[in-house]
Hints:
It contains twelve helices and no strands. It has helices at 2-10, 14-18, 21-40, 57-82, 97-124, 147-170, 185-207, 216-254, 257-270, 283-311, 315-321, 323-338. The longest helix has 39 residues, at 216-254. The radius of gyration is 20 Å and the shape is globular. The model is unreliable at 1-5 (pLDDT under 50).
Amino acid sequence: MLAQSCYKDSGGSLRALLHKRSVWLTAIGWLAGNVVVLAVAGDALPFDWPAAASRTPVGHLVDANLALAEVLLLTVLTYRLTRSRTPLDLAHRAPERSVAAAETLFLLLYGAAGLGLGFVLARLAGWHPFGLHLAGSIYGTHDHVSPAESIAWATYNLVVYAVVPLLFFRRRYSAEALNLRSSDRRADTVLIGVVLVIESLVQIAVLAPGIFELSPGQLLLGAPLTFTLYLAGAVLPAMIFIYAILVPRFLRLTGSTVATVIFGGLTYTALHIWDAWTVFTSPGNAVLSVVFLLLTYFAPGMFKTVLTVRTGNAWVHVWAYHALAPHTLIDAPHMVHVFHLK
Length: 342
């Protein structure tokens, strides 16, 4: 009964979605974030964003809203491509409600502790705090990032958010219960291919990534290096912590795919709290930092959740919408610079 309810909820009509309080609250929150930026930012944002230094606050808002529109279109496309698949009993991959609630609370506290420890350890070493992104990811940075910091960041995140949670939960739950096994490899492959091509073309058209300016030697070394480091430091940690473990528990606790997608987006955003560009030196800057964390990561985090809920396979988002595009595509020039590749 719960599985049928969740699947019906996930595949409901637009009219049904518009009647959900969670959708309205999310829309109001998104609009409020836009208003806050217009009211607080003034003529410039306080962030170190070399890759987007010429954009005004209004321009950044336009970018964020266009990115949201793309995510919504990709979500519609994902529903169309998966509409004929057998409904998945994703909620029942989690334990009973009381156990799921305890495990979810434990995971959220554990994740917060991981962020806190990552801040302390990185600062003691003279580095940027360890969050889900290495300093300089996507937006670039004028700060120096060393090879040692990059490797330590990837190692810390892999151990804390992927290896330890996976070892703990894999002893108690099957690979299927943790969304680690495909129920339809052919359908998953088609979905991955379609989303990856569209997202790559959008990234290339909108961001004009510097990967195409690298020399053949830099590309030969930099692309696999970027793929490996970001797979370890960002992709697998998010996959295991959120999409393998937390998503089924969100679904079990809420009984709603819509609420689960929203919570997935919020959790994904929270893991980026230490992005190197955030500024917490004043109340205004702190507010702008939180708002732009949401404007940057909430929609992608929701779409990663959609891919997981619709396929029951946490690996789908890894290949369709994370490891290759955007990270390898966008961040390869950053890794070439960090490791001084010739």
